[in-house]
Amino acid sequence: MSELAAEAEKLDAIDELARVRSQFVLDGVVYLDGNSLGALPVGVPGRVEDVVRRQWGELRIRSWDESGWWTAPERIGDRIAPLVGAAAGQIVVGDSTSVNVFKALVAAVRMAGEGRDEIVVDATTFPTDGYIAESAARMTGCTLRPVAPAEVRGTLGERTAAVLLNHVDYRTGRLHDLPALTAAVHAAGAVVVWDLCHSAGALPVGLDEHGVDLAVGCTYKYLNGGPGSPAYLYVRRELQGRFDSPLPGWNSHAEPFGMRSEYEPAAGALRGRVGTPDILSMLALEAALDVWDGDGEGEGVSIGAVRAKSLALTDFFLECVGAYVPAGRVESVTPVAHAERGSQVALRCEGAGDVMKRLIERGVVGDFRHPDVLRFGFTPLYVGFGDVERAARVLGASLEEQ
Ligand SMILES: Cc1ncc(COP(=O)(O)O)c(C=O)c1O
Ligand SMILES: Nc1c(O)cccc1C(=O)C[C@H](N)C(=O)O
Fold first, then answer.
1. Could you tell me the distance, in angstroms and rounded to a whole number, from the CA of residue 376 to the centre of ligand 1?
2. Fewest Cβ atoms nearer than 10 Å: which of 32, 125, 173, 192?
3. CA 196 / ligand 2 centre spacing (Å)
4. How would you class 73 by CB atoms within 10 Å of its CB: exposed for 0-12, middle for 13-18, buried for 19 or more?
């Protein structure tokens, strides 16, 4: 056994989260793509079966009340809340991240007040946020200013209405400084919207602690909600009364079954709701979140423990890549500093698309991002140190043969 394989064994033996892995359906592959689609928690199929057969099949319409369908967006929002450092009553689940970016950004501009007519967006953002920011700017009469995150501070001014930022960059895995950037946006008198897709469930976010205004995120990555599971919207409690949704559907009405022709927004975060929630996906997500509560014997999973393991996994991966991969074949574009690293490692590599295909054939699943990035996501709930060592070894062997 190599020294690194022995080290992996030791690290797995003392890993306090190793017990959580049995709560996921995993076969023999090394799954390093949980930052795109999280693995299936074992409790989900049974719950979905019950929702379909009993709640829908037998209770039918009664389930809107009796099975808690109607209140699912707020209830499940409250389950996500502790994972992103939010007190209850500030998160609603529903729609896609893209739709929530739209709601949050337009609402942010509407909150910002007179004379503020610029939206600042991370120029390196996941494309959907950029597309929606452009449309939101056109609709609200704002100018869009795409800037690199490092330059955001210098761009802020008295015309800034809203700033849309990613907590973790989807391509490089860079973790941006949420507390400092939030404070800078506030100092300029503007409203900040954070996209948490690549951080929620992987590291502490501290929404309440850092005074974040609005935030959105998906649930199919580190929250393991399943393909197309609904996203969420956070609206800080003090701003809820001023949250003027650009999509005021009947589900966010103060009295939805009053069927009134005038719109009157509900109080609280449920102002962020729009239309009928996608119950099947939503309740699959609810079951997936049980993983965080523990297995009935062990205690629940803390986000602090997840972060500690995530950093240990990515550190160990970089060490193994350094040892196994022929010199000069890959270059990490993920920051080395822990304070700047999310839960993934991105390696720039010539022919990355073909390299990733070969890795997948050999049981190591990551993904490829244009133009030349091999992306490996580490979900501490089910990835172990042995997986990490194997992934780097297979990568090294594949590149050596090439
Ligand atoms: C940072 C980021 N924002 C938004 C999205 C898109 O989310 P959705 O497809 O839920 O709209 C993704 C991934 O798909 C993402 O990585
Ligand atoms: N949402 C996705 C999908 O529907 C298909 C394929 C991939 C995705 C993703 O989530 C991509 C992901 N946001 C990324 O960071 O690349």
1. 17
2. 125
3. 14
4. buried
Instruction: For residue 205, report the distance from its CA to the centre of ligand 1, in Å.
Output: 17
Tokens for 85? 């450092």
Assess whether the C-beta atom of 170 lies below 6 angstroms from ligand 2. Answer: yes
> 34 Cβ partners below 8 Å, 6+ apart?
221, 222, 224, 377, 378, 379, 382, 383
Catalytic site includes residue 126:
yes
pTM confidence score: 0.97
Tokens 């994972």, located at residue: 83
| Mean pLDDT to the nearest integer, 296-321 | 92
Q: Does the annotation count 195 as an active-site position? A: yes
- Domains of the chain in start order, with CATH, are 3-17+301-401 (3.90.1150.10), 48-292 (3.40.640.10)
Q: Which ligand has the minimum distance to the alpha carbon of residue 231?
A: 1
The per-residue pLDDT for range 204-253, each reduced to its tens digit, is 999 999 999 999 999 999 999 999 999 999 999 999 999 999 999 999 99
